[in-house]
Carbon starvation protein A (Arsenicicoccus cauae), 754 residues
Amino acid sequence: MTVNDDRVRAVRNDPDLPPVAVEEPFSPTPVKKGVLALIALAAAIGWVMLAVVRGEHVNAVWFVLAAVGSYVIALTFYARLIEYKVLRPRDTRATPAEELSNGKDFMPTDRRVLFGHHFAAIAGAGPLVGPVLASQMGYLPGTLWIILGVIFAGAVQDYMVLHISIRRRGRSLGQMARDELGQVGGWAAILGVLSIMIILIAVLGIVVIGALAESPWGVFSIAMTIPIALFMGVYLRFLRPGKVNEVSILGVALLLLAVVSGSWVAESSWGAELFTLSPRALALWLCVYGFAASVLPVWLLLAPRDYLSTFMKVGTIAVLALGIVLTAPQIQMPAVTQFAHTGTGPAFAGNLFPFLFITIACGSISGFHALISSGTTPKLIEKESQARIIGYGGMLTESFVAIMALITACILDQHLYFVMNAPKGVTGGTPETAATWVNSLPLHSPGGGPLEPATADKIAQAAADVQEKSIVSRTGGAPTLAFGMSQVMSFFGGAGMKAFWYHFAVMFEALFILTTIDAGTRVARFMFSDAIGNIPGLSKFKDPSWRVGAWVCSAIVVLGWGSILVMGVTDPLGGINTLFPLFGIANQLLACIALCLVFTVVMKMGLFRWAWIPGLPLVWLLTVTLSASYQKIFSSTPAIGYWANHDKYVKAHEAGKVVAPAKSAADMEAVIRNTVVQEVLSVLFAVLVILVVLATIWMAIKASRAGGLPTSEEPDVPSRIFAPKGFLPTPAEKAIYAEWKAAGLDPSPQGVHH
């Protein structure tokens, strides 16, 4: 195959090998320009209908048009601006996966498989639960933050951190911060990243356990993904190297079989006994799985399992989006509710600013993603140019998941939404008391009119429709998402399938979150080994593939988050529940650290003209997170301030009273102790981030005065492999493939492109 375009240039590093890179300008054909124009028009119409016209009835289809159209335009133009003006990838340069390839942690991985791993690793509880809870403030603020936030903040962070880590041999976020920010800022970043990371993994674990405990169907389906992933890993590595499409079909077929057969297993006597696990047992099995995923070769379990999970994740969300387009449900929630102004929402307390931007974390920006972008992904990517579709594109995909979650919450009857998301202390726990309570709320229709009163029969029937004993006070967001998904997905199979789709959605959420635990544990191991490798005499730990170091660091990391997890499931008032309120703020503070690193590197590179790209989201996120931290520390409202809540329980305990959720004097003492832990950790995280910010400002000033400073970027190593930039090779890339084939060679030493 030949390409008749003088602007396309094939680049060789070795005269005895075919080209390793193709340089071709972004020049869309008239047809592609027309398609992009239509997509932009559809997005504009969606935004106008959501934000301007609105009216009495708002159709959920407008959300899909606004989101998808905005994502396509952002990936096509804004991400390319970052690529051309700031990052400037070079495919003639070997990535860490090629340079350090060892079949354990470093290995060139097909971009499609890697996209699946990366997306599965970053897409956890946040894009599912956060938008559901934030819906109490109305659909418009959440929609704006999810879509605009991901385009200008979240995807920018993921993409740029990934590229920076690739240029530094796959170093972790904390180590890169130390290298670029100096001793004080660097060690503050390392301590902040490690402590926050342990908490994040533990919180994700408790959400998984909440979905899977006493659920044999869910446990069986999730457990079967492990042997399926092992089979896929061996298949791609030894049996049929490079046959990605082939193994994908086999893997998806086996996964669907596992999901369907899960219901049969759950109904059998042996299955119900074997796969019905207590929360404590699940916590221990999660620790075992996390350790195994951390130490086994990445091609054997982690990458294929996450790739497999992506089919379930993206497939389910795609079917959900199709169901929304076909059924065109009406939005029941107003654009902005009174709770956005009063800060007294039943799902969570606090005003729209800053708490909406904390609650919707992963759907717009998440610090956890920066850990994956500087953890497993840079050690597996084949070419620098692939970082745009994997880093920026992967985050856009997660944002779409968040939009789908927000829609499923907002199409529910408002009474049902608030009954599900308010604690038992206010609903009473029964349909009768919940109906009385929810009718007292200041609710109105999207057009401003009154709502018909809720009835106990209506609430009870909603539970019966999904074969649940009760939906009252099913807090946390996940049950609401499952209920909303059952409403839409029942389009496929009828109303009689609501119960199936509800329980399928619960299993789907658990699968969604579990993949962040395995990748998160491996990344935490990388960070911990990097950190202790800075200690004199322990420099060997800096090699992430050193087997002894990998096992020791994995054991310590799992012991860290596992102990918190076990504490959380055995002590309902302590452990993880103490840390859960810190989850959103800690996650966003971690994003601040990541953006500080990116901003510092851009300034040291002398690209002052483009420093606003990471600088603007950094300033915004610092404003949000530090404002939220301030309120959590100093607010006099017990529902918001940790110290105020602490004082409330101290006074009640001294007066001999018991205040919910405590049920005894011992419980009161536990709450008092736990609020102190919350307060100390919130102060610690804020102080560490402020130290990192001060180090960033100082380094930026030095770089500005000097016209740039040296960075810790590693020297170029010439590449000897070839791979396309995107999912589908261009005509020029196909021509290069033909050259490799004609020479009797494979463009990747692992044979991933056979």
Summary: The chain has one domain: 30-213+277-415+500-706. The chain is about 65% helix and 0% strand.
